Amino acid sequence: MSTPIAYFLLVSAALFTIGTVGVMVRKNALLIFMSVELQLNGVNLALVAFSRMHGNLVGQALTFFSMVVAAAEVVVGLAIIVFVFRRRRTANVDDLSVLRW
Amino acid sequence: MSADQIVFWVFAPISIGSAIAMLFQRNAVHAALFLIVNFFTIAVFYLVLDAPFLFAVQIIVYAGAIMVLFLFVIMLLGVDRDEVLTERVWWQRPAAVLLGVGVFAELFVAIRAGVGFATKGADAFAETANRGGNPQALSRVLFRDYLFPFEATSILLILAAIAAIVLAHRRRRAITRAERDAEETAVLEPEVVP
Amino acid sequence: MLELAWLVPVLPLVGFVVNLFLGRRLGRAAGWLASLLMVGSFALAALVARDLLALPGDERVHVLHLFDWVQVGTFRVGADLRVDALSLTMILVVTAVGSLIHVYSIGYMEGDPRFGRFFAYLNLFCFFMLTLVLAENLLVLYLGWEGVGLCSYLLIGFWFERASAANAAKKAFVTTRIGDTFMLVGIALVFLRLGSLDLSAILEPEIAGVQPSGVFTILALLLFAGAIGKSAQIPLHVWLPDAMEGPTPVSALIHAATMVTAGVYLVVRMHLFFEISGVALTVVLVVGLVTALYAGLSALAQDDIKRVLAYSTISQLGFMFVAAGLEAYAAAIVMLVAHAAYKALLFLSAGSVMHGTGGETDLKLMGGLRHAMPWTAGLMAIGALALSGVIGLSGYFAKDSILAIASEEGRALVYWAGVLAAVLSALYVGRLVVLAFLGEPRGERARHAHESPAIMLVPLGALALGAIGLGALALDKVTGVLPALLEPVVGELEAGTAGLPEPALILLSQVVAFGGLLLAWFVYGGGIDWLALRTRLASLHRFLNRGMYVDDLYSTLLVAPGKAGSASLAYVVDLGIVDRTVNGLGAAVQWLARTGRRVQTGLVRTYALAFLLGAVVLLAYIGSRI
Q: Are A93 and C603 an interchain contact pair (Cβ–Cβ within 8 Å)?
């Protein structure tokens, strides 16, 4: 491995940032969700990079768990989106503003 | 330039590019597809970083299961139509971009201060950490040091499945007036937000 | 019975409480109950008198300590009553005249929707008045003082639906308040300088050495200020004519016989201070004299039957203060007693006239009432004769003894001014009788007049007997029954030898009395066209009718600026500043809330933005610390 770890970390940071901006900017609930997945992946990449840097597999184990949790979260989140869609016929989060002043 | 450097410099732009492209898509299905591309590039990164097991898992679980699930829901709900472009909160996009830049800047500073651009990664990784192959080594870590979290995540998965079933279950019951009103007001014109 | 002297004021207090709560249910019986209690109070007073007179002359003082009232540090005041010759005289007058007026009121106030409440107030007034005169210390006296002021307000404004009555009550209260405030300062100063409020302590002759005489001047003048207010002397006299808005029994009891005499009582009681001061005595004399003349003149131009009597009261009170100013305190008290009888008689007779004519009060529209109301006419005439000072009647022994004293002391100015005032009093009361009863009826209501019921006439008769006979108490101004009785309290009057000889004085006084009455008969009885005369002297008539414009002067100088000031305070300060500030605070809070709640957009993405912002800031902070 001759690439400096920092470059991987920068890619990870970039992916995380793009995912964050995506969460802020998109209005479709599913697309927001996808941006969240992007964020998670960015973090996973960083974990693995650190694992390589430190020379142990802790980071990889954590990444494993992160993936499991992400999978569970996607399942539940999508179920919620489906449920809300059935009630309100919209996937636009801006329409769900009942708690507005 | 060694092999991993070439791979890195090829896939890094693809990765970031697909992420940005995903951001700008109006069609949800297109965005999902770009995300799948991104996942693939990340899988390649895992490979480069001596984590072949995760490379496989990434493709199988993320690209194969999660994104398929996403695409199913998109198709099911039919929300692949174009989004409304006018923004209710006019300062949302500029602020988001600004803060995004801020986050990246902070992370950059943190990385430079913490790790430094010189560190290359531990030597003899294959012999020490990945002894006996990556899956074997990973299983050693998982089933010994992190057994309890491992078992907990299995329970989590079961719970998630149950939750999904319960949430999506259509029960036959009287539709309340609130629900009927909600149905009527479901698709609204966006109000002007200050 | 001396020990039970406290029952004398308490009986009417009981009547007040009962009539306050059960008055409406008792109906007419409320009046009888109140009157009965007053009669009982009078009987008790008589018994107390018997016991007091049983004591030898120098020891006729009995102090009752009822309970400890105020105990603050070294300041101790008890609810103490003092029974001595002076207070005894006063309670006999108050209870006697009070009882008669209570009985009269049963007939006069018949049919009034607040019948019971009237008697409750009357009884309450009697309680306070009796407390005032029985007080052993200045604080109890002040309690009674304020209490009678309150009852005066309640009773003047009894028919408060009439705006004029409500305003008159307010005017009376505020005007007397001015005097009362000075008096309170005086009482406080008494305690500060003399160390005690008890009469037993501060009315010892040795008290003169405790403080320089200048202090006593101030004390006496401050107390006299209260008397000026309560007894309607210049400059605080303006409330009494307007107080005639109240029912006539009220005018008779409070504004003729009792409350207004409280000022005279106070001066007589505290005469030691005035004598030590000397200056204060002169002030009293001057005020009394000027008031007597002023009021006498104003009475001549009044058309309202009760206002004539009101100004008459002011004038007669002035006479009493003249007596006090001449150190002839017994004479002042004698006049107080006589005046109580004949002035109450006059007022109640006026009430009878009003009752019989269905509410007529304008003398211009009366006339010829002697045919329809013979009893009232006769009794009122007796009162008029008494007031004029016709020999043999009580008024003569009262008023003319004062004039005689003035003459004997060589105070020629006082004497002749007093003679002038006597002329005026005969004139105005003669005018009143002639215009009301003689001649022919000049108005509709006078034509259909009728006599009043017996329940009103009997008290009039009793008062007439008093107006005639009370002179017996003071056949001689030194050795008469009353002056001798009062001597331990007020000191002995030394008869002077200056001035005219006594027969000349008597002759002159009768010339004045009869002369005034005859002149009134001549001018107003048909000899002169007095209405035309009035038109020719219109500005003079108006000047006197309006009380020499004193009221209007006060209105411009004091009331208008006061109203302007309070309007400014109300609108500019209260509404403009205070209300705006408070409302502004509320508005500010509302604005804050209105602006602040816009954070709650209800959009998840805004909240996510907020998260991110927080995270960025936090990261920056942590990053800067590394």
A: yes
CATH number at residue A37: 1.10.287.3510
Domain boundaries, position A48: 5-89
Q: Are C201 and C63 in contact (CB under 8 A)?
A: no
Residue C303 parent element (H or E): none
The number of domains in chain A is 1
Lowest mean pLDDT among A68-82, B108-122, C29-43: B108-122
ipTM value > 0.85: yes
- In-domain check, residue A98: no
Q: Which two tokens stand for residue C394?
A: 């009580």
Distance CA C434, CA C593 (A): 80
Give yes or no for a contact between C120 and C23, defined as CB atoms under 8 angstroms apart. Answer: yes
Answer whether residue A100 is part of any domain. Answer: no
* CB neighbour burial string for B131-150, b if at least 16 within 10 angstroms, e if fewer: eeebeebbeebbeeebeebb
Q: What residues are paired with C83 via a beta bridge?
A: C62
Cα of B70 to nearest chain C Cα, Å: 21
Residue C618: CB atoms within 10 Å: 11
pLDDT of residue C319: 93
Give per-residue burial for A80-89: e unless 16+ CB within 10 Å, then b.
bbbbbbeebe
A68 to chain C, closest Cα gap in Å: 24
Give a yes or no: residue A78 inside a domain: yes
Look up the pTM and report it. Answer: 0.70
A34 occurs within a structural domain: yes
Assess A98–B contact: CB distance below 8 Å, yes or no: no
In Å, the largest CA–CA distance within chain C is 123
Residue B111 burial (C-beta neighbours within 10 Å; 0-12, 13-18, 19+):
buried
pLDDT digits (tens, 9 = 90+) for C597-606: 887 877 888 8
Three-state SS string across A22-74, please?
HHHHCCEHHHHHHHHHHHHHHHHHHHHHHHHHHCCCHHHHHHHHHHHHHHHHH
Closest CB to B102 among C601, C616, C626: C616
Token pair for C75? 């300041």
> Which phi-psi region, left, alpha or beta, contains residue B91 (left: φ > 0; alpha: ψ -120 to 50)?
alpha
Chain position carrying tokens 């912002």: C613
Residues C443 and C365 sit within 8 Å (Cβ to Cβ): yes
> Residues of C with CB below 8 A from A99's CB?
600, 602
What are the tens digits of pLDDT across the range C482-503? 888 888 888 777 777 777 777 8
Pairwise CA distance, residues C579 & C570, whole Å: 10
Across the interface, whether the CB atoms of B89 and C616 are under 8 A apart is answered: no
Check if A45 contacts B (Cβ < 8 Å). Answer: yes
pLDDT digits (tens, 9 = 90+) for A32-79: 999 999 999 999 999 999 998 888 889 999 999 999 999 999 999 999
- Point out which residues pair with C72 in neighbouring strands: C75
